[in-house]
Amino acid sequence: MSTPFRHAAYFAPVSQSQAWDLGSQWLGRCAYQFTSLKQPEFENLSAELFEQLTRTPRLYGWHATLKAPFELNSNSRLEELQTAFKQLANQTVSAFHLPLKLDDMGDFLALVPSQPSPELQALEELCVRQLHHLALPLSEEELQRRTGAGLTARQSELLQEWAYPYVMDQFQFHMTLSGSLKNVDPQHKADLTAAALEWFAPVLENGLDIDAVTWFSQDQKNGNFRWVERFELGPSNCA
Questions:
Q1: Tens digit of pLDDT for each residue in 119-159?
Q2: Does residue 180 fall inside a structural domain?
Q3: Is 148 exposed, middle or buried (0-12, 13-18, 19+ CB in 10 A)?
């Protein structure tokens, strides 16, 4: 089997849980089983429009990013990446609970924390730092392209250091529910928001237990990401 194109560290609810099933059905794809799913139907949204509005996050699968997608550098092997995932999960003291709310991120809808979480910030920083040495550095051309994408000075600094601008103090945990809504009819956006509040009501009521880091891979450029392995948090998980 060929080496995957890119890898990422995500938070994903445990497979076959209600939170996993709801998110995967919303997106129309299960990254764990690597299969398409029938999306839910809503009275005020046509199936075609709903499919279109959720198309972008469908590629990545149901998740929240902890370490953004990266290519392995030429000196690293998949076994080293697996070991790094095990080690970072082992360094996190224990699982923690995260209450959620639905948020308009300005361009898309997402589930986000309803209150600050120092544990979550620490986990994200650990993932970024522990996996960084295995990642292929961005080319100068790619750095220049991303630097000119409306970033703040701080975000540009983080891009240069960590190959991604939304890390450390700029990190925002979010579980993406839609693609760009900039040019979407306001009524359609309102209908999508109402549908998300209805569909994700159990998750919004109960929150999530952040209990693992999950390795996702993208086998080829522009391909769907798939679930590779889930690493539960806590010292007992590393031999």
A1: 999 999 999 999 999 999 999 988 888 887 789 999 999 99
A2: yes
A3: exposed
Range of the domain at 166: 6-237
Q: What is the bridge-based pairing of β-strands 212-218 and 225-232?
A: antiparallel
What is the predicted pLDDT for the residue at 207? 97
Residue 207 belongs to some domain of the structure? yes
The DSSP secondary structure of 69-133, one letter per residue, reads: EEPBPTT--HHHHHHHHHHHHHHS---EEE-EEEEE-SSSEEEEESS--HHHHHHHHHHHHHHHT
* Model pLDDT for residues 210-228, shown as the tens digit of each residue: 999 999 999 999 999 999 9
Total of domains in the chain:
1
Which tokens hold the place of 186?
């306001």
Is there a domain that residue 1 lies in?
no
Instruction: Report how far residue 235's alpha carbon sits from residue 192's, in angstroms, rounded to the nearest whole number.
Output: 41
Whichever domain contains 165, its CATH number is 3.90.1140.10
